[in-house]
Structure formats: structure tokens, C-alpha cells
Design a protein that fits this description.
Radius of gyration: 23 Å
Number of helices: 6
Strand content: 25-35%
Shape: elongated
Structural class: alpha/beta
Strand order of the largest sheet: 2-1-3-4-5
Distance between the termini: 53 Å
């Protein structure tokens, strides 16, 4: 079995497109090589040898984002030659081109079918790859994307027994997939189980955002936290961004007079990977 199901080869000008495809594939469990996913592993290695191995031996498909810049650059030329070397020994297709302009590389037949980037979004490409890889897209009814609000500051309220207790705040690299479950009257369990969450902590002693001057100082060593109404939860995501969440209200169905499970919270996502929330003079 190949180490990677898909290895993406691209020039820096197409990084945004490549990253969106990579994240869509990774989200569904596809083993994908995208350089930023493997920065720690690549650090200090001979990249010429490593990339040659990945694109000539270690992948089932090479997804090639072809453009004028892709043809001109040194590293993409190296990756392309390794992929072509592999393609010459394959009985079935190996190089899967996405074309961004009129440029076309030597060594790849002009008769090779490609997808024009102007007509196919990164998500479209990912879904086509799912079919090519035989990834099952029919999911259980519970396997659905959680609701999301993309604002950097907002009030949120939802039934924490739905969507597996998940709710996404923020967007792109500043997104946080929160995860919750019942904790009792006025209490709720928060977890670091969200797919892009690196850690969670309670901002001990904080009564307002002004008290949170360094979000990185709190204790992130537990997978779960029991949070009370009025307390602040700090989230850190895989991209190094922080969010501060104040629990406003928790309803618990077994509680006298409560007919549902519901949590309401206020949140702020700090920009530029800042840890000081005291500067955010917003109404809570």
C-alpha cells in the first residue's frame, strides 16, 4: 500500500487551491501529501531525495496543478520529473492534471485528460478524487457537518445534543470546531475533540476579557473541561490562533423547568495569533 493516496504538486501561486483540496481530502481520512502538513517531518531532510521518493514511489496518484509558474520553477520541475518517471511504469493513470492557464509541461502527453481550474473548485476536485479512490461518500445520518458561524465575535446558542455536540466558530485558519456534552444544571463539558483543536483551558479567575492578558498561560493539559455559567473557556487551534468563550447560559433537560438541552455563549477570536484579549473592548 502506498504511503500516500494523493501527493499534490503545485507552485506557490496555486497554494490556496492546493491547501483547500488537501484539507478536504484530509477531513475525509485520505492520506494526502501536502507540504505544510509535513513541515516537522521534512525539516532538516534532503528535500531533493524526499520529494523524488514521494512523487515517484510513495503515492497512488500525483495531483499536478499546472500553470506557467509551475513549469518555470525549480522544485516543481523536480517533482514533475519524478512523477513522470513513475507514470512511465504505470499501466493506469498516475498524473492527474488541473490546468490553470495555457501552459503545458514537456513529458506529459497533450492528450492527457485534465480538469480546468476555472470550472472546478477545490471541493469539486476533492469529490472527484473521492470517487477515483473509492472513498465512500454515503454516510450515516449523524455524519454531517456541524453548523458554523464565521464571525470573529458573536453570540451563539444551540442544542448541544445535536451534531454530536459540535459547533464551528470562525472560518478558515481561524476556525474552531467546538465540542460539548451535558454537565448538569449550569454546567457543560467542553472537549478538545474538534478536528482542528489543539487544546482547551479554563481562564481561571477571569471575570471579563480584560482579565485575559495572556491566553497561552492557562492549563491546556486535559482533553475535557467542566465549565460553569459565567466562566471563560480558552481554545487554541492547530494554526496557533486563540478564542475566548464565555458561557452565558446552560440548560439541562433533567433540570426542573427546563425542556431542552441548550448552551449559549459569547466568543471572541483573536487576530494575528494574539494571546491578549484585554484589548478587545466588545460588549459581552
Amino acid at each position: 500500500m502506498s504511503r500516500f493516496e494523493v501527493a499534490i504538486s503545485f507552485a506557490g501561486e496555486q497554494r490556496e487551491f492546493a491547501e483547500k483540496v488537501a484539507k478536504a481530502l484530509h477531513k475525509r481520512g485520505v492520506r494526502v501529501f501536502y507540504d505544510e502538513f509535513f513541515a516537522p517531518e521534512l525539516w532538516g531532510k534532503n528535500l531533493a531525495e524526499e520529494f523524488h521518493r514521494i512523487y515517484s514511489k510513495d503515492s497512488h496518484f500525483a495531483l499536478m496543478l499546472i500553470s506557467k509558474e509551475y513549469i518555470e520553477k525549480h522544485w516543481t520541475r523536480h517533482e514533475r520529473r519524478a512523477a513522470i518517471e513513475r507514470a512511465l511504469t504505470e499501466r493506469s493513470e498516475y498524473i492527474l492534471p488541473i490546468r490553470f492557464d495555457e501552459a503545458w509541461p514537456d513529458g506529459i502527453s497533450s492528450a492527457t485528460a485534465y480538469l480546468p481550474a476555472s470550472e472546478y473548485s477545490p471541493n469539486d476536485v476533492a469529490h472527484i478524487l473521492f470517487k477515483k479512490l473509492g472513498v465512500e461518500e454515503n454516510k450515516k445520518d449523524s455524519h454531517v457537518e456541524p453548523p458554523q458561524v464565521s464571525s470573529m465575535v458573536a453570540d451563539v446558542g444551540f442544542d448541544y445534543t445535536s451534531f454530536n455536540g459540535r459547533y464551528v466558530i470562525g472560518a478558515d485558519e481561524q476556525a474552531f470546531e467546538t465540542a460539548w456534552s451535558a454537565g448538569g444544571p449550569g454546567l457543560i463539558h467542553a472537549y478538545d475533540d474538534g478536528r482542528n483543536i489543539k487544546g482547551i483551558a479554563i481562564a481561571e479567575g477571569a471575570r471579563s476579557l480584560e482579565d485575559i492578558t495572556d491566553a497561552s498561560q492557562y492549563d491546556f493539559t486535559s482533553r475535557s473541561r467542566l465549565v460553569r455559567e459565567g466562566e471563560y473557556l480558552i481554545l487554541r487551534n492547530m494554526e496557533g490562533f486563540y478564542a475566548a468563550i464565555k458561557i452565558i447560559e446552560v440548560r439541562y433537560k433533567d433540570q426542573r423547568g427546563s425542556t431542552d438541552h441548550f448552551v449559549k455563549f459569547f466568543y471572541v477570536i483573536a487576530g494575528d495569533r494574539e494571546t491578549d484579549f484585554s484589548k478587545y473592548s466588545v460588549s459581552e
